[in-house]
Specification:
ATP binding, alpha/beta, AAA family ATPase, ATP-binding, six-stranded antiparallel beta sheet, Rossmann fold, 30% helix, R3H_dom_sf, PTPase_dom
């Protein structure tokens, strides 16, 4: 079927003359000879210390001379480009070329990859009708297929042709070029630079809050924090155009870091009748939320793209094990676009069930999930496995009632007497109940000190209660103190009582512990804090600022940070008051 989209001839702007000026004469002159015939096919120039300089074209690789690259020549190039940022990328002012560095163990640059940046006008003719819909669009494809080039052209069309307020979050200055003045290829679109790659998600939110954009353009969404920021932007009614690595939408489903871009995946257990009706396993995967991006484009080749114009339907179809319907769009050299509609096909290779899936919205928590607790309920008499008399007798044999006591015990995995009866003093009952319930701990709270196996008390309260201390001493009941009435403190104390406080076993991080109401907003805020700690603060040793939240939610985030034994504080004025997390 022929598209009604008007055809356009593609125009290319590459500023190769400015790139040539950074190379020494012996390399520049040889490179200039090749460019007279194959300038449009040049992809990058590679200079590695002690190796022959290479020019990489789309169809071959050519050595530029017979002598290896020297340190002096590398330094010559370095002095003629911009400053290398923390991601080892630099550029040439007012051009789109990207210069990437390879360093040795001492930090010296021993290699350069000089990637050619081109502004290709007319490259998005295949999806221009989708851009005009105002829906958020995600571009997928392998490195080098032209995602950034398409993103640059989309920004120009939205800003110049459709007269929209467009802000580009330019992490590595790859979209709008190096220097303070953006490249003309982005038209009237504005560009926000990012000081460090790990701050990209903060700049995304800042762009929305400070500059009232109608469209946000972002390249290479690669972390969960950036995916979370993208969702926040989309939910505020701003059109989002972004790219991510991955050839197909199915790749995103299987990528736990980026699955939220397509709605996230959760495990659902069906009833027997529903499972039979669907002819599926009882445990299946389903989409848990609307996708951040309404449209996804798989850029298979430079002139052949696959369009999913309803990502929700595509994800639901894939999770049922069926190959979804899609549009295959191609463009010829004259700019004529052809659209072929592919229908859903018969059974596709099913995605793995929860037992083997790598995508899980919430990790199983508690002792039962970790294998530390046998699946025996404390007061149950239901046979374990069958209905015979032998099964019933065996089930009862697991439970023993202590003489002269109401306590009923069941053996733990190592022969422990469970549950452990706790007498609490000075600690909120709701906090204790939440920890026990969410983490599924073998602990029973008792109001009778005679029945207690241990006392858990607030440190500031117990030191003034000599009577309780003396009774516990006479009856040889251990006293465990908590410094403050918080979830992390209570969790550590309970783990210590159950002999689970092993440094080699990570403490469970169940976000439901720290959420009072369990609302989506609270869980989202806690998830943001968890990702910041686990992906940036701990591994990289860098502080992180979170998004503005209410005082109630910030308190929950503070408790979660304390769980990781890190420090945090609130700063800023309402309604922009937010948390800053510090490394240990």
């Amino acid at each position: 079927m022929q598209s009604e989209i008007p055809s356009h001839r593609m125009q290319v702007t590459d500023n190769l003359d400015k790139l040539l000026t950074i190379f020494p004469d012996s390399i520049r002159l040889k490179l200039d000879e090749y460019l007279k015939t194959d300038s449009d096919k040049l992809i990058e120039v590679v200079l590695d210390l002690g190796r022959l300089p290479e020019a990489r074209f789309s169809d071959n690789v050519t050595y530029l001379r017979d002598e290896p690259v020297t340190k002096e020549e590398l330094q010559y190039c370095i002095e003629r480009v911009g400053i290398f940022s923390s991601d080892n990328r630099a550029g040439i002012e007012r051009t789109l070329h990207r210069i990437s560095a390879i360093r040795n163990r001492t930090g010296d640059i021993i290699g350069l990859t000089c990637r050619i940046g081109r502004a290709i006008f007319g490259t998005i003719v295949m999806i221009r009708d989708l851009i005009e819909t105002g829906q958020s669009i995600l571009l997928l494809g392998r490195p080098g297929v032209g995602k950034t080039t398409a993103l640059r052209e989309i920004a120009r069309v939205l800003a110049d042709d459709l007269k929209k307020r467009v802000v580009i979050v330019d992490t590595s200055n790859e979209i709008a070029g190096d220097g303070d003045i953006p490249h003309p290829a982005i038209g009237r679109a504005r560009r926000m630079q990012v000081a460090r790659p790990e701050l990209q998600h903060q700049v995304m939110i800042e762009a929305v809050e400070n500059h009232t954009p109608e469209v946000i353009v972002i390249d290479e969404i690669g972390t969960e924090l950036e995916a979370l920021a993208a969702r926040t932007i989309a939910e505020r009614g701003v059109q989002l155009v972004g790219t991510a690595h991955g050839n197909t939408v199915e790749n995103l489903i299987k990528n736990p870091t980026l699955s939220d871009l397509v709605g996230g995946i959760q495990s659902v257990t069906l009833g027997d009748d529903e499972a039979r009706r669907r002819r599926t396993q009882k445990t299946i995967l389903e989409r848990k939320a609307p996708p951040t991006f309404a449209i996804a484009v798989e850029m298979l080749e430079r002139q052949r793209w696959v369009v999913h114009d309803d990502v929700s339907a595509t994800i639901d179809t894939l999770l049922r094990g069926i190959e979804p319907a899609a549009q295959v769009r191609t463009v010829d050299d004259s700019g004529e676009v052809t659209i072929i509609h592919e229908e859903s096909s018969s059974p596709f290779k099913p995605l793995p069930s929860r037992n083997t899936a790598t995508v899980t919205p919430l990790h199983p928590q508690g002792l039962r999930a970790s294998g530390k607790m046998t699946p025996v309920s404390f007061g149950a008499t239901k046979p374990r496995g069958g209905g015979t008399e032998f099964d019933r007798l065996l089930d009862r044999s697991w439970q023993t009632k202590e003489p002269n006591s109401k306590k009923i015990r069941t053996p733990g995995p190592n022969g422990e007497d469970w549950p452990v009866y706790i007498y609490a003093y000075g600690i909120g009952r709701s906090q204790l109940d939440r920890v026990i319930e969410v983490l599924d701990l073998p602990i029973m709270l008792t109001k009778d000190l005679d029945e207690a196996d241990a006392v858990v008390a607030l440190r500031s309260q117990i030191k003034h209660h000599s009577k309780l201390r003396n009774i516990a001493k006479d009856r040889q009941i251990p006293i465990y103190t908590v410094k403050s009435n918080t979830i992390p403190q209570i969790t550590r104390t309970f783990r210590q009582i159950l002999n689970l406080d092993d440094p080699n076993i990570p403490e469970p991080t169940d976000l439901r512990l720290f959420s009072k109401a369990g609302s989506d907003d609270e869980i989202e805020a806690l998830e943001e804090a968890r990702l910041a700690v686990e992906q940036i603060v701990i591994p990289q040793g860098q502080p992180v600022e979170l998004l503005p939240r209410s005082a109630k939610v910030r308190k929950m985030q503070h408790e979660l940070i304390e769980h990781y034994r890190l420090q945090s504080d609130s700063f800023g004025d309402e309604p922009n008051r937010r948390l800053r997390i510090y490394p240990a």
